[in-house]
Amino acid sequence: MTSSLEQTRFSVMIIEYPLFMRRLTFFNFKEEPKGRLLSAGTICVLDLVIRNGKIVTESGVFEADIGIKGSLIVEISKGIRDSANLKIDATNKIILPGVIDGHTHFELPVMGTTSADDYEHGTIAAACGGVTTVIDFATPAKGSNLLETIAESRKKADPKVSVDYSLHLVIDELTRQNFSQIKEVMTKCVQSFKLYTTYKKRGLMLDDLQIYRVMKEVSSRGGIVGLHCENNDFVERLTSEYLEQGKVGPIYHARSKPPESEIEAVRRVLSLAEFARAKVYIVHASTKATVESICEARERGVQVDCETCPHYLTFTIAKYEAANARNYVMSPPLRREEDLAALWRGISNGDVNTIASDHCPFTSQQKDLGKDNFTEIPNGVPGTEVILPILYSEGVGKGRISLTDLVRVSSLNPAKLFGLYPRKGTIQIGSDADLVVFDPKKKQRLTAENLHSRIDFSIYEDIKVTGFPIITISRGRIVYSDNQFTGKKGSGKFVPGALFGSPNVIAGGETNRVK
Question: Quick one: 113 exposed, middle or buried, by C-beta within 10 A (0-12, 13-18, 19+)?
Fold first, then answer.
């Protein structure tokens, strides 16, 4: 849906802002959104001013200064005159809205081990890559209360996170109790849910009727359902055949999960979404045909968004023939060159809506649990810290996407999709001061030594990017600068997502509605 800002070159916006208890007027320009949160003539000592940078929003690129007071952006204009406690000279630098990583797995128990990054180290890695909000997953134990599951996840996360976070709720079984709790969960804290069409042996899979019921219930209340799409029976059969033949290397992980297993499941859940009239998103799309199927469903009126990940934009199935192939095992697996190219095209033309990391790292020792059997390799790779440099260096730098495309898929769209906009995902007056000062000329090799995950290797070891964040600001606090994490454990906040059609929160106020 086209916003009023996109429809007209100039508009006047009136907002109620409880923090300052006054009615405010500011001007928005498509190319250069300018204005002040404080009325003209107000004496204000700003906490931070970023000067001389090129600001990138979904609408374009323009030069201006940004004034920050407390946790908020309070002024955007050229030559801010207010005194400030701290000034950043961003000459020849790009100012981006903080990245929203809508798919992380911190402290995730899986396959007899636990992902290596907890909420502390995972959000440190995020901050050092320009990510200012992560959305992790609350996964219930069998028979547990959904509200208690969310409370347990927050109990783990709140004391550790250094950037803001939200949660998706996994539903891995459909009982009368947890189905009845969906309404209360959505009212209180979570508007997005994740379902699996696979992992039956691990107890995660729902059948088609259960998926349909959850879709219908969540959609009727203004929420959204994400889906991990693979055909369980097909994958299990192929896996058994390879093991019976003694084919146990990492390449058979990929061959047991061919593109067809993803594509069939995607088409099936899109049909279910059509029946349920539900809003859904397909997580970690990895194939050309998946994107094509999503486009076809949209033409039929299905409300569907599409996510992909940096590793699908960087590597191909050839990595499973390498000596360190175990390190690249994730699900879905890496695909063909034609799929990689199609995903980049999808970002450029708007068919792929968001980029998220699916950050779920394991150490070499953990990966070695499957050295003799691909089915025992913990599935997952790191990624939250490289979203921005990969999108810029491999995307913008190589002419595959534009700067506005980058902002759209990494910040704006995930903020809108998960009910965080306009508090997050954009650079505008009254939004959280979640910002990245990005040096488009900085060269950086993505080695383990230069990254901040707790694993002892980097799957991006051989990649040298041009363009890297040099400062990350989370709600007005500098959490990363000069290659050093400068944030504080526990300083991040839980940010609940607003339901579609309900009041959305902007900087503590309730002024905008999700379109």
Answer: middle
CA distance 181 to 405: 38
* Residue 244 φ/ψ region, left for φ over 0, alpha for ψ in the -120 to 50 degree band, beta for the rest: alpha
- In the structure encoding, which two tokens stand for residue 142, read together? 């069998």
Taking the whole predicted model, whether its pTM rises above 0.85 is answered as yes
Q: Give all strands (DSSP E) within 351-508, no chain letters.
A: 354-355, 435-445, 464-474, 477-481, 484-485, 503-506
Residue 475: its H or E element: none
d(CA 322, CA 390): 22
Convert the pLDDT of each residue in 322-369 to its tens digit: 989 999 999 999 999 999 999 999 999 999 999 999 999 999 999 999
Q: Are 85 and 61 contacting, i.e. CB atoms less than 8 angstroms apart?
A: no
Cα–Cα distance for residue pair 405/515, rounded to 1 Å: 20
For residues 268 and 275, is the Cβ–Cβ distance under 8 A? no
pLDDT at 141: 87
Phi, psi of 335 (to 5 degrees): -115, -155
Helical (H) or strand (E) element with 261: helix 259-276
